[in-house]
Amino acid sequence: MPRILALDTATNACSAAFSVDGTVQAARHELMVRGHAERLMPMIAEVMAEAGAEPDTLDLIAVTVGPGAFTGLRVGLAAARGLALAGGIPAFGMTTTEVLAAGVAGPWNGLVVALESKREDLFVQVFDANGIRLSDPVALVPAALVDFVGETSADNRLLALAGDGAARAGDVLAAAGFEIDQRGPDYPDARCLAALAETGWQPGQPLAAPAPLYLRPPDAVVPKDGGRLRL
Fold it and tell me: Helix (H) and strand (E) counts for the chain?
């Protein structure tokens, strides 16, 4: 009867969920552009208190590893790894795109998950009618989306979309002749992550510590001269 705490801070939302044997006992999901670091730990405390659970009873910590915002990813991963270390329990990582795909009600013929990168490109992953991954998550500009989806989905022209980049992706795909069947959630939800962890993790399975999935380098760079003042 696995007891799982699931966390997501990778995008413009913050969520936490506690599940026992595949049933969510308590959850929170809040939209926010910033403030994840300040909100996450109180949110975890609220979820655990509502479920009447103690941290030392957990079997697994699940967390989204990206793609997503650099700062948000670090917040969730640091919390998950810290809680796992303190409790001597494993931590399990899942991509944000897989968690979003799990939140889209089927059936569909094909699914494109598209997340905004806060730049020109989108973070994209394609799934088939059974939710099986047809691609790895990639970063690409919308102009490259038609060829990528067409090649990946084997000429499947009827698609569902999910993610906060779905509007931009949908415009490009619709103009190329794809039919958009439905729209899924904009942001991952820890409840879906908990369900994926329930089926994807085996008790006793050795797990490496979750690491962030970055699809492009950070915007911040080390300045020339190491940041020293030039006189």
Answer: 6, 10
Residues in contact with 196: Cβ distance below 8 Å, sequence separation at least 6, in sequence order: 62, 94, 98, 99, 102
Give, in words, the CATH class of 105-183: alpha beta
Question: Per residue of the chain (231 residues), what is the pLDDT tens digit?
Answer: 799 999 999 999 999 999 999 999 999 999 999 999 999 999 999 999 999 999 999 999 999 999 999 999 999 999 999 999 999 999 999 999 999 999 998 788 899 999 999 899 999 999 998 889 999 999 999 999 999 998 886 556 789 999 999 999 999 999 999 999 888 899 999 999 999 999 999 888 888 889 999 997 655 555 566 555 554
In 3D, which of 177, 168, 167, 120 has the Cα closest to residue 147?
177
| 2 and 27 Cβ atoms separated by less than 8 Å | no
User: Which residues make Cβ contacts (< 8 Å) with residue 114, sequence separation at least 6?
Assistant: 122, 123, 124, 145, 161, 162, 163, 165, 166, 168, 169
Element (H, E) at 213: none
Is the domain covering 3-96+187-200 a CATH 3.10.520.10 domain?
A: no
* Domain boundary assignment for the chain: 3-96+187-200, 105-183
